[in-house]
What does this fold into?
Amino acid sequence: MIRYALRRLAGIVPTLFAIVTAAFFLMRLAPGGPFDEEQAVPPEISANLQAAYGLDQPVHLQYVRYLEGLLQGDLGPSFRMKDYRVTELIAAGLPVTLAIGATALALAVFAGVPLGLLAARRHNRWLDHAVMGVALVGIAVPNFVVAPLLALAFGVWLGWLPAAGWEAGRPEYLVLPAITLALPFIAYVARLTRGSLLEVLQSAYIRTARAKGLSSAAILRRHALKPTLLPVVSFLGPAAAALLTGSLVVEQVFGLPGVGRYFVQGAINRDYTLVMGMVVFYAALILLLNLAVDLLYGWLDPRIRHE
Amino acid sequence: MSERGRGLWGDASRRLRRNRAAVASLAVLGLLVIASLVAPALSRFALDEVDWSLATLASPPSFANGHWFGTDSNGRDLFVRVWAGTQVSLLVALLATAVSLVIGVAWGATAGYLGGRVDDWMMRFVDVLYALPYMFFVIILTVAFGRSLFLIFLAIGAVGWLTMARIVRGQALALRRQPFVDAAITLGLPARRIIARHIVPNVAGTVIVYATLTVPQVILFESFLSFLGLGVQEPLTSLGRLVAEGAAEMESAPWQLLAPSAVLATILLCLNFLGDGLRDALDPRQRP
It folds into this structure.
């Protein structure tokens, strides 16, 4: 098990390298550069800017320099936010994004799984249809509609929670963004859990458990729960990566200083290093989480053995 | 073909017709398509016509002045804009899904059928693209190549094919061990022909199901791009764009959010129900 984990961990390095390379050259292939302005800038100034950030060198040299920095844990200077290193920007926004993302992830698991189990236990009765109907709405309504609606309802009309803003350590600022972010994930997890439990309940070993007289609660707890969670766990890997890298919409509507906006802002501004930093962060997260998923598989289903 | 047995498709359409939610969704979708084509002609306003006769530019829905859904903040008729936006959203969704379908099926079927080292490299390529954030690609593509409608669906489709490729490849891997494929090989058919005539038709069921579930994802993604201001451009509009504009005015002019949101949510719900129905009809064992 440990050897398997270590081998997989070593396998992450070349994949990450391929991703960094692909992202680096894709970014450079796109026309336009970080210092293109609306107004014409005197050629000397733009030449100086290009030289200051090393953009006047051939692309392959820039790439080698970027890799050298990366190996030392330096993601380079931001091209658009002057005087900031990308590492600093990400480090400043990450606590906010992680706090909200982790809360949303917890909500997705601890609300989604029980709802799915409940729906499956009441299969084809009104509670099942109600839960699945609400889940579809949760998937179908875009978060830039949900976010302002929640802010308006709970922030402005009811006044229970702050409509926007962030004060570190004050949990009330966390509630609405986390709920907005979590809603579609709760819905997906509930649907997956329901479908999976319905299938597991058809298996022979559940029939055996029932035949020896176990109560349905005991069957669920002791026999059905773990295999039911298999597809949920494999969904949660990439889902966790998406939640933990933040959401532009949620951060924008609730005025949060997280890292979610960097992706979009960076791509639009051609802030090469900022986007690259986020890509490296996201890709590393997704690769690690996929490894975690595979390791969890072995625990949930003893038939899956890693050697 | 003198004897007509109950084939996969006959069985599937029978099961689909028994699924009331799926049939109702199909009917509603049909009505929405017709409405989006016909409705703009029913109003006496044009898509980008500003109604200067209004007291305020953003006026609520009213039968008296002919603005059945009200007007947007520029005084343009929302009824016309919502249905025109529906046309664009559906068009983008269908074309983007078609692009991702063609690339995904071709890639997945080839990798799965050929197997071995070719399969390894083709799927590793998919894995690398998978770990790159989806959003990053589309934004780079749209920022780089301008924001024409054509490029939006091309960009969304060009990144949406990854999941399709994985699904198809898995099926093709199983199919290539089937006797009818051996028979085709024995007959001396070239690989290209076997993939096109024997592998692809056999993955059609899965592909159709996944495609109906891709359409709502594309519509949502297009609306996200519109929210960022990277979606379709004036004077064209899309449901996502209208929702994004409405969300900004929801306190002062709630009808601007409600009308397009209702249509968008209806389309997405219907497509989801239809997709679920198709999945159950074509593959009754595999449920989400």
